[in-house]
Amino acid sequence: MLLFYPRSLPPLIIGNNCSRSLIESDNFICESDNLWNERKILYQIQDKLNMQKRPHALFYLTNWQPNFHCSHARRIGKMGDGGKWICDLFRLKTRPNCLIYSAGSRGDFSFETQMKQFLPNCEMHTFDMNLYKCPNGVCVFHQIKLGNGTFPQGSKSWQMIIEALGHKNRLIDALKIDIEGGEYVFFPSIFKTSKNSFPRQILAEIHPRHTHEMHALFELLRTNNYVIFNREPNLLAGPRYFEYAFLKLNSQFFQ
Q1: What is the pLDDT confidence band of residue 200, given thresholds at 50, 70 and 90?
Q2: Going by C-beta distance under 8 Å and a sequence separation of 6 or more, which residues neighbour residue 239?
Q3: Cβ distance 164 to 150 under 8 Å?
Q4: Is 120 within 8 Å of 137 (Cβ atoms)?
Q5: pLDDT, tens digit, for every residue of 13-48?
Q6: C-alpha triplet 220, 58, 243: angle, nearest 5°
Q7: Residue 64 and residue 197: Cα distance in Å, rounded?
Q8: CA nearest 147: which of 138, 136, 158?
Q9: What distances in angstroms separate CA 114 from CA 84, 143, 244, one per listed residue?
Q10: CA distance 127 to 141
Q11: Phi then psi dihedrals of residue 242, to 5 deg
């Protein structure tokens, strides 16, 4: 049987030319222009819905749905609380200088351990305000309180951390973070640094605050070219706690 497509809707054919997706994903995703354009259309549709900011007692029931989809997203770490979804893990295997940050582990190294199994050459650093010890050969532990450098007292900002570790000029492939509401202070410190220092992926539990604070946090990520590729409720914590996964794209994707 022959299939006929209207001129406005050509068939989606995966080709070798992926120059547009490479540019607009900062050399992370390679797929045909047709498939990539479909992603952009779906993003624009969902982004408009997200920006309507519907009021509801359960904030996440009507707000901030995923607006991008990674073809090979994968959950890393233990099942339930503690694991995180990461976009297209296999693409990091080609990264000769892979770098992962994990903050707020509270002694749970299941994410780091599994990441190391898949990416043995990847460098990983774990941060927590309490003292723990990384499993041998998995990661380097740092007892650090995350904040904006002045609040909370004695905290370290994003720039202070990457400068202290000598990572100012390196791409952080993923930041996995769960700091019990501290993201509202820490995330703004990320975006006060050079765009080259922004992590490519942010895998975070977002904790409940006043509605305007929660919207402002998502708008901050959106303004800095992050899309939402996954979300899931943390049923252990309650209906107002959600895990989110963000991917940074090039500004040309949004034009």
Answers
A1: very high
A2: 58, 233
A3: no
A4: no
A5: 344 689 999 999 999 999 999 999 999 999 999 999
A6: 55
A7: 25
A8: 158
A9: 11, 22, 19
A10: 6
A11: -135, 145
CA 100, CA 122: separation in Å to the nearest integer? 7
Tokens of 79: 């099942």
This model's pTM is above 0.90: yes
Tokens of 14: 């995966």
Structure tokens at 78: 């233990």
Bridge-based pairing of strands 242-248 and 226-233 is antiparallel
Structure tokens at 28: 């992370």
Residue 4 has pLDDT above 80, yes or no: no
Edge-first strand order for the sheet with 242-248 is 140-143, 123-128, 99-103, 174-177, 201-206, 242-248, 226-233
d(CA 104, CA 130): 9
Average pLDDT over all residues of the chain? 92
Helices (H), the chain: 19-24, 33-50, 59-62, 110-118, 158-164, 183-190, 211-223
Higher pLDDT among residues 82 and 137, named by residue: 137
Q: Quick one: tokens of 198?
A: 């922004």
113-131 pLDDT per residue, tens? 999 999 999 999 999 999 9
d(CA 142, CA 196): 23
What's the rounded Cα separation, in Å, for the pair 26 and 11? 26
In this structure, CATH architecture of domain 68-254: 3-Layer(aba) Sandwich (3.40)
